[in-house]
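Field log, afternoon session.

UNIT: design team B
ACTIVITY: writing a sequence onto a fixed backbone
BACKBONE:
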């Protein structure tokens, strides 16, 4: 029986909390596994913003899925290609890990070349939407429209700080299951956890390598939130 690691992704914290979008992805993956006679041995869920998320170090659950699939000699399965990315370069980078990817929507016989084609088309669609949005804004500005609200600077700064805190909480929510897996496997110190995170190619919150202090900060934040 084929072994699969299911990877589900939603693009906002609200969707992650409500389950919006997750059940549809899960149902598609389960139907695919049943039709292929495959076994889903693990499921990992990523909650993050779509913007700027096309980097493996911002997808700790995807990095964990790659690691698990590699260990069991299986494949990572997603419901649709855009649950991985719409960036063809990112898709190519994932393939360099030599872990098979299966897209339930496309079927098990889709070869890597076709995945590149589908990713390129999806990326082109995203770029066209962006270009149309920028063109519409340029027309508004040319007509004299003033975009944004410059009178609420203090409010904007407060909102910016709240956004940073939400992003930190969101990243912690994705990292903590990975840290729990590492400790369950026998890691007993912050140094050992940091070494395992670095071995899985998961970057620290500000980039670079994990240190014992950064691991401690993540764990302390969880304990503080639970208090």
């Amino acid at each position: 029986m084929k072994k699969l690691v299911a990877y589900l992704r939603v693009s906002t914290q609200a969707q992650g909390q409500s389950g919006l979008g997750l059940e549809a992805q899960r149902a598609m993956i389960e139907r695919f596994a049943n039709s292929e006679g495959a076994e889903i041995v693990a499921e990992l869920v990523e909650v993050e913003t779509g913007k700027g998320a096309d980097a493996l170090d911002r997808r700790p659950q995807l990095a964990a899925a790659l690691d698990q699939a590699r260990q069991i000699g299986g494949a990572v399965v997603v419901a649709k290609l855009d649950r991985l990315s719409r960036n063809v370069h990112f898709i190519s980078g994932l393939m360099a890990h030599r872990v098979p990817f299966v897209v339930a929507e496309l079927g098990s016989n889709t070869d890597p070349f076709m995945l590149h084609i589908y990713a390129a088309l999806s990326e082109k669609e995203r770029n066209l939407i962006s270009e149309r949005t920028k063109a519409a804004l340029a027309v508004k500005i040319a007509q004299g429209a003033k975009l944004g609200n410059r009178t609420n600077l203090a409010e904007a700064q407060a909102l910016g700080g709240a956004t940073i805190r939400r992003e930190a909480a969101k990243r912690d929510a994705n990292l903590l299951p990975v840290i729990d897996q590492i400790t369950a496997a026998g890691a007993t110190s912050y140094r050992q956890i940091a070494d395992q995170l670095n071995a899985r190619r998961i970057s620290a919150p500000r980039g670079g390598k994990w240190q014992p202090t950064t691991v401690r900060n993540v764990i302390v934040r969880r304990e503080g939130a639970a208090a």
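LOG NOTE: Strands lie at 3-10, 39-47, 75-78, 101-103.
NEXT ACTIVITY: expression trials, pending approval
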